[in-house]
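User: Hey, quick favor. My workstation is busy. Could you predict this chain's structure for me?
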Amino acid sequence: MLPVLYEFPLELQKDESYWRDQRNWSLLLPNLGRSIDPQRLVDDYQNNGKVNREAETIWVSQHLNIEIGTGLKTDASAGAEFWADAEDETITLDRILEVCETIVVSLDGGGLDDLYGANALGREGDTRDWLSWSKAWCHEGVLERRQSIAARLLDFQKAGELTIVKQAGDDIADIVGLIDDVKQRGLLAAVAVDPAGLGEMVEALAEIDVTVENGLLVGAPQGYGMMNAIKTAERKTQNKTLRHAPSALMDWCVGNAKIDPWAALMNGVWMMSRNPEAAARSGWNTDDLDGLMARIDAAVDAMTEMGDPENGRQVLHGVGPAA
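Assistant: No problem, here it is.
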């Protein structure tokens, strides 16, 4: 016996008008008209499946293989219904680094049987909108331990949204490299984390001078304490002041609201809600003394001519209007 399961592609699972059209049900049900009576199925949907939202969610998951948390999202975060509309195809990590005045990098997860989620949440300089980019890592053993999602994880890997590592610690090295890049650009406000289970990440971050002591490593509240971040994310995705890069990985995570990359984003939202500023730039190249002196001269001129010390400070750091 070979069991075969048919599913609509993810984009059609999200299109409620498509899967509610009974003419499309035969694509998922090869036994329709044989072991499944078409009229009885329609009657069951009309009399039971459409009673309320929760009943419909259960019905379509059983009969149409619509993944709970994608098609109807009752197992999703409260803002999941707005997530797709907040997608912005222009957002990449490079763009966030280019247009944002400050960036929170946030993390969650890290077990060998789980995903390690990282998010870069930037505050755009002109609009102060929040721009989000996410990625995940996992150990190759997850493919064996969680075979029900292994094919999906491999798809995320092909899309460049997930890195599958062979050696524990390679994921941490990648993530610390990302954080160090943001820090060297003078954009890092903080690294926001779930305090539980950080392990070797704390030591790795200390090597790039991201620590609790200097305020760059911050523990985000979990459980009930995270509710404000969840509500903030819901409101800001709805009004599109929080927009995110296209990502099938995050579509899946947001739909289920239990996966570490989504939790990493919530850690970042919590921190960004505190209106942080980037730490002072640490990436000056002291070998380029001419360039450094030119920047100092420009800052002095800005302070003298405009009578504006703040503008001079911004020029000095390469972000002011006269820079």
